[in-house]
Amino acid sequence: MSVPAAYLAVIAIWSTTPLGISWSSASLGPELATLSRILLALPMVVMVAWVLGIRMSWRRDAWVSYGIGGLMVFAPMYCTYIAAGYLPSGLISLFWGMTPLLSALLARPLLGDRITPALILSLLLGAAGLGIIFAEELVITVTAWPGVALLSLGVALYSLCAVLLKRVDSGVHPINQTAGALLVALPCYGLTWWLNGAEAMIWNWQDRGTWAVIYLALIGSVVGFFCYFYILQHLRASSVALITLICPVFALLLGHLLNAELVTLKLLVGACMIGLALACYHWGGRIRWHLLVPLKA
Questions:
Q1: pTM to 2 decimals?
Q2: 3-class secondary-structure state, position 235
Q3: What is the biggest distance separating any 2 CA atoms in the chain, rounded to whole angstroms?
Q4: End-to-end Cα spacing for the chain
Q5: Would residue 61 be called left, alpha or beta, if left means φ above 0 and alpha means ψ between -120 and 50 degrees?
Q6: Which residues of 229-239 are buried (b: 16+ CB within 10 A; e: fewer)?
Q7: What is the pLDDT of residues 254-270, one digit of tens each?
Q8: Which stretches of the chain are DSSP H helices?
């Protein structure tokens, strides 16, 4: 596979995922949309593992890893699907762009990582950017409060699970990790679907929400996964980190063009501040180093 092609594929998939979530949640409801996505994605991952000859690991630490991964797949995604009924897809993408910063902050007490001045500045810039965005959104749509709360909870849980997975470090194959996480999350989604009325799983093939579910399951959950780990193996972490800067921009544009979402000046200012926060986090140490070298000379 071409590395540039895989890189572009990840950008395209991550940029279109929030819009797909909005469409599928609006058409099928959060419970049916999420359950359908898992039911389609899990057999595909298992089939890929079988074709590649990768066997599941049933060690105790592997099950711990699967459990954390299942929570990571269930709670944050379910919160995001519900929040999609209150917030535009572009805002969802911007908020999810903060996960690297939150993960780095949580890594301090859980992994013993050092909190750098660049991280503190990044968190302040990101919080300010989100404050500008959501302040305007809540003024425009007062009913957006539940979406903000759910999205905040989802992003926080995702960041926490990411750090916990790093702490467990079971060493299981990424395909096994994905299959195990989906397997653990499946009954959780089934329970939420049943508790909310268990509506019939009848898809309208002329409805864009149905095609959004299929896209998110097969392309977002399977192809996106493989492409992401492929570029991680062939590119530097700093190059991969650019994706978190690029995707929210495209997500905002797609939401405006395809979903008639409002893009205001304050939204753009907030988005730029979040982008600056991510850039400061990823390259803050390097910029500071270049500034200090001439002073030492």
A1: 0.82
A2: coil
A3: 72
A4: 45
A5: alpha
A6: ebbeeebeeee
A7: 888 888 887 778 778 88
A8: 3-28, 30-52, 60-83, 89-96, 99-111, 117-140, 145-168, 174-195, 208-214, 224-234, 237-241, 243-259, 265-296
